[in-house]
Amino acid sequence: xxxxxxxxAEHKDLIHDIAYDFYGQRMATCSSDQxxxxxxxxxxxxxxxxxxxxxxxxxxxxxxxAHPEFGQVLAxxxxxxxxxxxxxxxxxxxxxxxxxxxxxxxxxxxxxxxTSVTDVKFAPKTLGLLLATCSADGVIRIYEAPDVMNxxxxxxxxxxxxxxxxxxxxxxxSLSRLHPPMLAVGSDDSNTSNGxxxxxxxxxxxxxxxxxxxxxxxxxxxxxxxAFAPNLGRSFHTLAIATKDVRIITLKPVxxxxxxxxxxxxxxxxxxxxxxxxxxxxxxxIMGTILASSGDDGCVRLWKDNYINNWKCVAVxxxxxxxxxxxxxxxxxxPPNHPTGVQQPLSTTRNVTIATVTxxxxxxxxxxxxxxxxxxxxxxxxxxxxxxxxxxxxxxPPPILDRPKSKK
Amino acid sequence: xxxVKLEVQWSPIHSNKFxxxxxxxxxxxxxxxxxTVRPSCIKISDSTIAHLLATNTSHHYVKCIDIYPQPxxxxxxxxxxxxxKVVLTTFGPTAFDSLGLTGKELAPKHARQCNAVAWNPVDxxxxxxxxxxxxxxHSVLLWDVLKSPFDIERIHHHSTSQxxxxxxxxxxxxxxxxxxxxxxxxxxxxxxxxxxxxxxxxIDFRDAVKVVNATPTKAVYSLSVDPHNDYHLxxxxxNQITIWDTRYFEKPVLTLPQSRPVTKVLWCPTRxxxxxxxxxxxxxxHLHDVQHCGIGGGGEDTEPGALxxxxxxxxxxxxxxSWHPIHVNRLLGISQQGLTDYTVFERITVNWATRSxxxxxxASKSIKYICSNDNIYKSLDDISVLTKSRANAEYGxxxxxxxxxxxxxxxxxxxxxxxxxxxxxxxxxxxxQSPENKHPGVRMVLKLDGQQNSTNSFIKSELVHRPxxxxxxxxxAKIYRxxxxxxALQLCGWRFDKETNALYNHLFLERLEREGAYPRAAAIxxxxxxxxxxxxxxxxxxxxxxxxxxxxxVAMALSGFSEDRNSMWRELCLKSRSQLSDxxxxxxxxxxxxxxxxxxxxxxxxxxxxxxxVAFALMFLSDNKLHEYxxxxxxxxxxxxxxxxxxxxxxxxxxxxxxxxxxxITGDVQSCSLIAIRALPPKLLQENQVQVWIDSYRALLDAxxxxxxxxxxxxxxxxxxxxxxxxxxxxxxxxxxxxxxxxMQGLSRARGPFGRLGGTSNKxxxxxxxxxxKPLPRCAICLMHMGTVSGLQTSTSNTNRSEEDNKLTEFSxxxxxxxxxxxxxxxxxxxxxxxxxxxxxxTTCRCRCSSLDASFKAGSLLQII
Lengths: 408, 865
Known about the structure:
The structure holds 2 protein chains of 2 kinds.
Chain A: E1 5-8, E2 15-20, E3 26-31, E4 35-41, E5 47-54, E6 60-65, E7 73-78, E8 83-90, E9 102-110, E10 117-122, E11 130-135, E12 139-144, E13 155-161, E14 166-171, E15 182-187, E16 198-204, E17 209-216, E18 225-228, E19 237-242, E20 246-253, H1 257-260, E21 265-272, E22 279-284, E23 290-295, E24 299-305, E25 311-318, E26 324-326, E27 351-352
Antiparallel strand pairs in A: 2-3, 3-4, 4-5, 6-7, 7-8, 8-9, 10-11, 11-12, 12-13, 14-15, 15-16, 16-17, 18-19, 19-20, 20-21, 21-27, 22-23, 23-24, 24-25, 25-26
Chain B: E1 7-10, E2 17-21, E3 25-32, E4 41-43, E5 48-56, E6 62-67, E7 76-81, E8 86-90, E9 105-106, E10 114-119, E11 126-131, E12 138-144, H1 151-157, H2 162-165, E13 170-174, E14 178-183, E15 190-195, E16 199-204, E17 210-216, E18 221-225, E19 232-237, E20 240-245, E21 254-257, E22 262-267, E23 274-279, E24 285-291, E25 305-311, E26 320-323, E27 330-335, E28 338-343, E29 350-352, E30 357-362, E31 366-371, H3 375-378, H4 383-392, H5 401-408, H6 411-428, H7 442-445, H8 454-457, E32 462-467, E33 476-481, H9 483-491, H10 506-514, H11 518-527, H12 531-544, H13 551-559, H14 568-576, H15 583-592, H16 600-603, H17 610-620, H18 623-640, H19 646-649, H20 653-666, H21 669-679, H22 682-685, H23 688-703, H24 707-721, H25 740-748, H26 801-806, E34 815-817, E35 824-826, H27 827-836, H28 849-852, H29 857-864
Antiparallel strand pairs in B: 1-2, 2-3, 3-5, 4-5, 6-7, 7-8, 8-9, 10-11, 11-12, 12-13, 14-15, 15-16, 16-17, 18-19, 19-20, 20-21, 22-23, 23-24, 24-25, 26-27, 27-28, 29-30, 30-31, 32-33, 34-35
């Protein structure tokens, strides 16, 4: 039986976020107990608590590391309506041969928000030392430290209102010069009639402003987390969304969208309901090939792309780490403690690209005998929209996969 | 009553017992599920069953129940009834019987409904009940179950009617209705009561009974005190849940409007500030994580809020629920359909480290993680783990191109690297003239794409009729030849002996045979009109391989080849061809039975390697058809991201697109960037796409702290562009500002005034600026002038002279300095110093140089802990 490694967290209340630094050798956790703890890994692979301090006067929602180029820097955000930037420094303790103790000092407290600050994220380092926050009053704020050596000075560069309460944000990590800086924001507004809950903002170098370029109108349930996959040079952006299900959305920039006046992106959605209820968090591996999600079923599920946009659940890890399953085929488990033991139909290959703007009319299922699974509209897809240019012809079924057999 | 109200409550003292009541009161015990479920048990979850221990049917019109909270082995219930009486009862005989508690009735003067009953959490004898209004009678009555004012002497005389005479020890709430009440945990004589649909009152029973605090509100139901904080109360009315702080009792600290009428709200005993609630006609359990916020932060008091969460346990229309007193987040729900034992999972946050650690939290207690060494992680087949191990093995950086393919341990990549090796060697030995591009593709060699006037450069092929000589037939096959086609064939790996009839290289076929690829060897023989040879190959194969392949049967079939269009052989072959499992054998027969030079079945045989299909096309297709076929094939392979298509595109912009498609499918940015720096011409390397691969891969190496690999990668990248990186560090004199290093480089070439010193075993000693003669700064540790060979240097051995000669000094005596305080010295002195110190070695300087360097951290950490 598999058992996950365990670290005694010693937090007094629920842990809201775990953040690894750039190298994956330091870890920061934050909790409702208003503390942040920093853990360091020694050369034997053991994790040690090296710092623990009270960072806010309310629950700490998120913690995040800056690129090490800027020093050992953390940012936190809290229910107490503030976000803070922390730097690790070496104390003044002196004495021959004695190394000063490291400790964390607050470099700045960002108090612009009038409500709970729900997420904080450093921008990709190519953009400089930028910090984005979003808050429950629906404002995204982008701060910049003009002098990277002085972390006490942050200027509020942009103040973007998105009308709905924000719960999470993510920077697009693309390194391509052709992609303008991009942010995606999710809202946990529970009123489904308020429309789309995920917004894409892009920065225009000409107007020097952030503008909303896309609203994902097929995500209407509250969004709890959102994450862009590492891009690595792909021609599309992949966005994972934690809402009442796991969504994996690809955004392919459309050329010459300015003329057509239509969507900037060709959007494909894949949707998985294996968590049965709410999905809380999503995160990507370093190369953007596997997605991890956690949800109300108390499990961490891992999703992998087998072929272009053909995502499958490849492993399920129980929250307590005592056992885990790994499988080639999708798992068929009943919902936890389900009294009737009825097996729900489970997701298998479920990506749908429907070449119409109206989601209500899915195309007829195309059956294929090849290994490649043709786009099939199955029962558990409630909705999948392709928001691209409707005038474009339907995408052809992808070609039959032929890899040369091993030549032995 | 139209429907019986169902209720459930965990015993506060027995962690495995609970009661339910509706028409009767039932006591259950919870046990782990066993294989056999006894009929008396009810399954309440996937892992637990409830065993009915006892039923108490003697009480009707039960309105409310509280379980005696003191740690006793038996369960004593206080049952509040519709007539206002509170009856103490048990399940069967218990220790309470001897105390006279069982069956004791506490009755108010006037009968009316009892709305609430609650044992005092501290004083074991006290119980309070809340009643409906009756004229001028009190509605909140405090009883002492053992010492009622009148009990002692009456017990003897009127044992049957004694309960009538028990009087409450305290009373409150004249002419009021008590809807709900709750004791405070730390103030044993104080309780809070919801009164008359319009007040919450805090009543103190300690002295004279008095109301110490009150607030007007309609939310008077389900009143309860936070088990973790006596100041916090919760109550509800219709669609609202209100949270109170007794210190600011004037108004609720938080009002949570709900979409439906609330039927029940309870504090979670195992989590701070967590409320659970049920709503009418809703299957969901609503959780309200109340957020309080101290003073600070924004400088002013922040209003509390609540993190709302909805979970849907596997129940249907729950009537009530009860939190387990000890087990974290466990609760029991009851509905008309039955009971549900459910544990609410805490929210899990999950994160993925760059080093392939996946961590998540298990509630607040622990952090769980898996890493790339675990089997579960290995089964994920994470490309990043593979990428890392390939990077460690210097994948892509080995000088011999084909060796890199062996490292990859992947057939497709191996073939690609091998092809890169092949194409380079063909270009290098001038078989193919391609001055700019070391890896031209088939299309490039055929000059199919490119300039508008391509018709000029495209060499027309001649048609050759070649007979099938070795079967003694005079039938001929049409073969197209041109010099470009020959070169392209070589790119496909089909090496030709130009003029002889045995057109192919025997070595190639022998290699295939050695590898066991008999069908492929046979097919290639047949394509080269060597039918007899193909049969020989198949026969050899049949003797070596398992019977399943039936190679000799195939050979037999092949020997019957007949060019006659209407022969039976042909007919049969056409029919049974599709049943052959091997693509090469299928292609062989497709070729032999082809009509009118239409070789669709060979060309579209996807099981055949791309190079063989292309080579086949190069031999048998006319110029137009070839052009068309290659165009289609390129397009198809590019769309699929099939690296075999690189044969067609070569190192061109289409090749870049192909690689990018491959990247999109596999995420293998490593192979893409390494192929780019090894194979792409400098111009293509500047493509934005390619630069993104390279940047991404370098960022990966950085994140894995693979500095050496990163440096080697950068070096390899520079060599391909042929541009020398500029020198990045210069040393200039403090005084005259002239470059010292430039002068030193001159010296190393053994010229100039010091040239004769260069060859001696004593390294050059230079401690002053060569132009102004002022001394160089001193090392902070050894106090020698920099540039001086000092300290630990061992005598130079003669073995490594050639390498050492190029360097002026050992690395250990290089200059190094702190970027902040500008103090420094010889590299190894400084390194030694900071192994034991954190402060700058210069006496008055308090700069903590080493700790400013993040990469120095790892080593220093241990000493702190």
